[in-house]
Structure formats: structure tokens, C-alpha cells
Design a protein that fits this description.
5 helices, four-stranded mixed sheet, alpha+beta, 4 strands
Length: 132
């Protein structure tokens, strides 16, 4: 019996290169730098994929805990933005210590409430007969 050893064969002489990544959007980096500076020079970023829209970079300020966010097309770009901004640290997830530092401004609550925020009168509930 003879032993055969498997040797890798190269069929293509083309050099192997890493896939090209899209450039980091300069306007996003600039606005995040301003945000970090306004928060005392430190902030945390949570990277959240949001489907075809891209990746949301949610920012939590180090000084006041103010929320901010920006969206970039890919996760690689989001990580590159975090690496490029001094004082910005990537958080792994929304844990108790991070959420306890968040300070939501009243204007942000109104924005999140949408059409309900300025209403004086609300539509009747669909299950009104059940409630009466």
C-alpha cells in the first residue's frame, strides 16, 4: 500500500486580495465627531443592522447620556466610523449599565410618539362594545 498525501494545487495565479470596502462617509464622521465633542469627548456606539436601509449607529453620550444616531450602508462602514472617531467606543449590546446612562430629551419623546404627540382628541377604540 502506498500513502497518498494531499497537496494543495493552485489553479489560478491571480493574487488573493481582500474585498474592497466602500469609503467611510465623511459627513457621518464629521457629525459624530461634533457629537462626541459636545458630550465631553466620549461616547458609546451600538451598531444595529436595520435591513436594507443599512446599519444604525446609535450614540450614547458620555457626559449627559444624550441619544444620537446616524445610518451607514454596511456594518464594515459602521465599524470603520467607530474606529476613526476619537473618544467613541463600540458597545457590544444594550446592557443595563448603558441603558441607565441614557437621557432622553422631551423633544425626542415627542418625535418618537409620532402623530399621537400633539393630539387633543383620540379616535374611538375598535373594541368599544366589549369595554362598555
Amino acid at each position: 500500500m502506498s500513502e497518498e498525501t494531499a497537496t494543495p494545487t493552485v489553479t489560478d495565479d491571480a493574487p488573493v486580495t481582500a474585498p474592497a470596502t466602500a469609503p467611510v462617509p465623511a459627513d457621518v464622521v464629521s457629525s459624530i465627531r461634533k457629537y462626541v465633542a459636545s458630550e465631553g469627548g466620549s461616547a458609546k456606539a451600538v451598531l444595529q443592522p436595520i435591513g436594507e436601509a443599512g446599519v444604525r449607529i446609535t450614540l450614547v453620550g458620555g457626559q449627559d447620556g444624550a441619544l444620537g444616531d446616524r445610518v451607514v450602508p454596511t456594518l464594515e462602514q459602521a465599524k470603520a466610523v467607530v474606529a476613526e472617531v476619537d473618544g467613541l467606543e463600540e458597545a457590544d449590546e444594550w446592557d443595563r449599565s448603558l441603558t441607565s446612562t441614557v437621557s432622553v430629551a422631551p423633544s425626542h419623546w415627542r418625535k418618537m410618539a409620532g402623530w399621537v404627540a400633539g393630539q387633543k382628541r383620540f379616535p374611538r377604540p375598535r373594541n368599544r362594545k366589549i369595554l362598555d
